[in-house]
Amino acid sequence: MLLRFVRRRVSAIVVGVALVVPAAWMEFGARIDAWWLEGVALVLGATGMAILWTGLTGAASDWVDPEEF
After folding, report:
1. Taking Cα atoms as reference points, which of 52, 65, 68, 38 lies closest to residue 5?
2. Global pTM?
3. CA proximity to 26, closest of 46, 10, 12
4. Is 4 exposed, middle or buried (0-12, 13-18, 19+ CB in 10 A)?
5. Does residue 65 form part of some domain?
6. Do the domain assignments include residue 64?
7. C-alpha of 13 from chain center
């Protein structure tokens, strides 16, 4: 389901930004001291950046024929 989702580039960019912005706020702007909230922010930020990057660059093919070079 996630692999099909990242094929839609615009929605992947929107969801990636929607995950990165609150994660960045929790890491840099919020005054929280709970260790688990920092972990959640880290996971949300990393997931959001991965989805955002895939939306920006497109999904890479998993196989390249050596004859194409």
Report:
1. 52
2. 0.79
3. 46
4. exposed
5. no
6. no
7. 8
Amino acid, res. 26: M
19-30 pLDDT per residue, tens = 999 999 998 988
Looking at the domain assignment, is residue 69 inside a domain? no
DSSP string over 11-61: HHHHHHHHHHHHHHIIIII-----HHHHHHHHHHHHHHHHHHHHHHH-PPP
Amino acid in the structure at residue 24: A
Q: Which residue has the tokens 């099909």?
A: 4
- Domains: count for the chain: 1
Q: What's the residue count for the chain? A: 69
Give me the amino acid identity at 41. Answer: A
Of the two residues 6 and 23, the one the predictor is more confident about is: 23
Q: Which domain holds residue 39?
A: 2-57
Residue 14, token pair as written in the block: 């929107």
